[in-house]
Amino acid sequence: MWIIDIFRKKKHKNTKSPKEEAAERLETMLTRRREIVKMIPVEEFEANSEEIKYAVIETISRKFNIPPEKVKVDYHEQNGYIVIVTNVNFK
Amino acid sequence: MNRPKVFVVTSGKGGVGKTTFTANLGCTLAKMGERVCLIDADIGLKNLDVVLGLENRIIYTSFDVVNGTVSAKEALVKHKQLKNLYLLAASQVATKEMMSPEDMKRIVQELYDDFDFILIDSPAGIERGFRNSVAPAEAAFIVTTPELPAISDADRVIGLLENYGFSEDKMYIVLNKFKPHMAKRGEMLDKSDVEKALAMRIIGVIPDSEEVIVATNKGIPVVLEDGVVIGRSFENIVKRIKGEEVPIEEDLKGVSKGFLSSLLSVFKKR
Questions:
Q1: Looking at beta carbons, which residues of chain B come within 8 Å of A28?
Q2: ipTM of the shown complex
Q3: Which of A38, A67, B50, B194 is deepest in the core (most CB within 10 A)?
Q4: Domain-wise residue ranges, chain B
Q5: Which PANTHER family match (chain B) (predicted)?
């Protein structure tokens, strides 16, 4: 029987070419990336920091259809701008 | 509209060929009669002088200019063969944090009127060295290879450059180390895949070439060697940035060898 199994496995071989697979992965990697890059001036962030953080959590939670507590928002200052870093736990 | 004069050569990812591209583009421009200045912004890990074969002629670096020891013009090193090509070398002992974007702007300002083209070789990454290199630039070459990590980093760099105020017509994508035979067999992404992913036009395709390794080890940029196919890609890039319409297919002419020419080249080598 194991001899038959060997032939069966061959039938399930991936038929995508390396180029097609790379193009697919690239699309997944790059989709929506650039629209996420936004810079908020420090003054604006200081005045509304909690509301902005909550808005980010709400947007991501809606976009990925996950509960808000699965989204973590952190931030740091860079060149006078606040860079917002978001971590999403999909599990 | 005036064409840009100060270009940064960047990529995000390391090892894609920024320094080799900078050296060869600089040599091509100089061969065409332009006055060219190359600035190595990879402080601490400088290599542009090595690729140009000028490592033994460096007396002053950009760090000496920042310290006020010499002027930017005094720190320049002239190329051995091309008398209108100059290099401002980077220090090996300093760090990128010892220079600021303002320092770089001042250096470029001092050299601006004496040159037709100023090319800044940026270090890999998106930290201080990248910001220093981008600060004085009017346009950017984004070098990538047809591999996912390089394209992904190029996309990130494009996003950052947009934030720095670079418009799409001031960002030029260069597809380096391209292997036409692999793309033909469907084993590698081709030009159109990269253009689609980055949503930007490619300014030039540079085929992968063993001649680059040989030339770099000799300290002679490959475009200065006789009968090198790759030189055409650089000439075409120069024509395109000057506004000339040259089909991108021209870059790969004579690269794909047929069976007969491959066989002949084996005998030639002997």
A1: none
A2: 0.71
A3: B194
A4: 5-268
A5: SEPTUM SITE-DETERMINING PROTEIN MIND HOMOLOG, CHLOROPLASTIC, SEPTUM SITE-DETERMINING PROTEIN MIND HOMOLOG, CHLOROPLASTIC-RELATED
Averaged pLDDT, B72-83:
96
Nearest to B85 by CA among B74, B77, B95: B77
pLDDT at A47 over 70: yes
Q: Which of A19, A37, A40, A84 best probes binding to B when mutated, by most B CB atoms within 10 angstroms?
A: A19
In chain A, what are the domain boundaries? 35-90
Residue B152: closest C-alpha in chain A: A30
User: Is this structure's pTM higher than 0.80?
Assistant: no
H or E element at residue A87: strand A81-88
Greater pLDDT, B48 or A53: B48
Residue B199: C-alpha distances to residues B113, B168, B259 (Å):
34, 10, 36
Tens digit of pLDDT for each residue in B146-163? 999 999 999 999 999 998
Fold annotation for A35-90? Cell Cycle; Chain A (3.30.1070)
Say whether pLDDT at A45 is over 80: no
The binding site of B for ATP comprises: 13-20
Judge whether residue A12 has pLDDT over 60: no
> How close, in Å, is residue A32 to chain B by CA atoms?
11
Q: Do B193 and A17 touch (CB under 8 A)?
A: no
E-strand ranges in B110-268 read 117-121, 139-144, 171-178, 202-207
B171 strand-pairing partners? B140
Which residues on chain A place their C-beta less than 8 Å from a C-beta of chain B?
17-20, 22-23, 25-27, 29-30, 33-34, 37, 39, 79
